[in-house]
Amino acid sequence: MLFLLGLLLTVKPVWNLLGVPFLLLGNGLRAWAAGYIHKDRHLTTTGPYAFCRHPLYLGTFLSMVGICLLIGSWRAGVIFTLIFIAVYIPTIRQEETFMARAYGESYNEYKSKVPAFSPKIRMAKAEDFRNWSWKRLLLNEEHLTWAALIIFFLLALWLKR
After folding, report:
1. What is the spatial distance between Cα 83 and Cα 42, in angstroms, rounded to a whole number?
2. What range defines the domain where residue 114 resides?
3. What total number of domains does the chain contain?
4. Reported confidence tier of residue 159, pLDDT bands at 50, 70, 90
5. Which of 71, 84, 90, 93 is in the most buried spot, having the most CB atoms within 10 Å?
6. d(CA 74, CA 78)
7. Average confidence (pLDDT) over 106-113
8. Cβ neighbours, 10 Å, residue 65
9. What does the pLDDT average to over 4-16?
10. Considering the domain boundaries, does residue 19 fall inside one?
11. pLDDT, the chain, mean
12. For residue 124, is it within any domain?
């Protein structure tokens, strides 16, 4: 959220609508993933987790690409990419180490079949969409991501005046 606020205060948005699909895809992916994941309770391999092991981070990346395109700032894109690499790559490594310890061979088998970040392209199956839960989305606090996005747009409109 601080990154978004900093963007609004330092650049004059051009409102390139090319960013909107990235924003919607990224936040939609995050919502889809948050409705499946049972953090630290069991290995989630369905829903978006059947396509990539870190759909929440991929969704964050796509959303931030969308924001950078929307405001038309290549500098923001470079800064975001550097921040993403510095923060998320170590986080992913740490999480994968934890998952391997917590879930052992089940995780290793999952890891061998599903890519970490770039989604595996295949036809979706019915189970990819079963068991999604609003309750889980709320428990995983994904509604806060949507709230931050709405606040970003309201601030942008207010600062544009």
Report:
1. 30
2. 26-160
3. 1
4. low
5. 71
6. 6
7. 93
8. 20
9. 59
10. no
11. 81
12. yes
In a domain, 106, yes or no: yes
Query: In this predicted model, what pLDDT tens digit does every residue of 34-74 receive, in sequence order?
Result: 888 877 678 888 889 889 999 999 999 999 898 888 878 78
DSSP H helices in the chain: 2-10, 19-34, 55-71, 74-113, 134-139, 143-160
Write out the DSSP string of 33-55: HHTT--TTTS---SGGGGT-S-H
Quick one: DSSP state of residue 142?
T
Q: What is the pLDDT of residue 127?
A: 66
What burial letters (b/e) apply to 124-161, b meaning 16+ CB within 10 Å?
Answer: eeeebeeebeeebbeebebeebeeebeebeeebeeeee
Does any domain span residue 50? yes
Beta-carbon contacts of 35 under 8 Å, excluding residues fewer than 6 positions away, are: 47, 132, 133, 134, 136, 137, 140, 142
